[in-house]
C-alpha cells in the first residue's frame, strides 16, 4: 500500500511481507520514490540504509514490517517498524565476521538515527534522517558522526 500527500510534505508507506525476496523490490521502490521527489543525491545512501534496516527486520524482527519515507522542510526521514521482541544493538564487527556492520553503516550515512518502541505492544521502529535540497542545488556535506557503541535494551 502506498500513500502520497501534497508536494510540500511527501510520504509513502509500504507494508512488507516477512520475505527476504522483498528486499530487491524495496530498493527499487526507494530509488523510484526519491527520483520522483527530485532527490537523486540521496538515492544511493538511502537505498543502502533501508537495505540494512530491512535486513535486520527480516532476520531479527517480526511481521508486519512497515517501511516509511517522508520528506518535509528539507529533511528526508525514513523508518522501518517490525513487531519482533528483539532490540537492535551495534556489535563488534571483526574483519572476518559476516554480520555486525549494519547499524554502523546506518550511523555513517545518516544525519541522525535511533530506535523507538512501538507504542502499542511488542516491536520497535528504527528511524533515520538526512538533510536534502532540491535537485541541482549542492547537497549539504554531512559531518562524520561517531558511532554509538551500544543501544539501550527494553
TrEMBL record:
Region (Disordered): 135-154
Domain of life: Bacteria
Gene Ontology molecular function, alphabetical: ATP binding
Record key words, sorted: ATP-binding, Kinase, Nucleotide-binding, Serine/threonine-protein kinase, Transferase
Residues in Histidine kinase/HSP90-like ATPase domain copies: 17-127
Stored PANTHER family: ANTI-SIGMA-F FACTOR RSBW (PTHR35526:SF3), ANTI-SIGMA-F FACTOR RSBW-RELATED (PTHR35526)
Name of the featured protein: ATP-binding protein
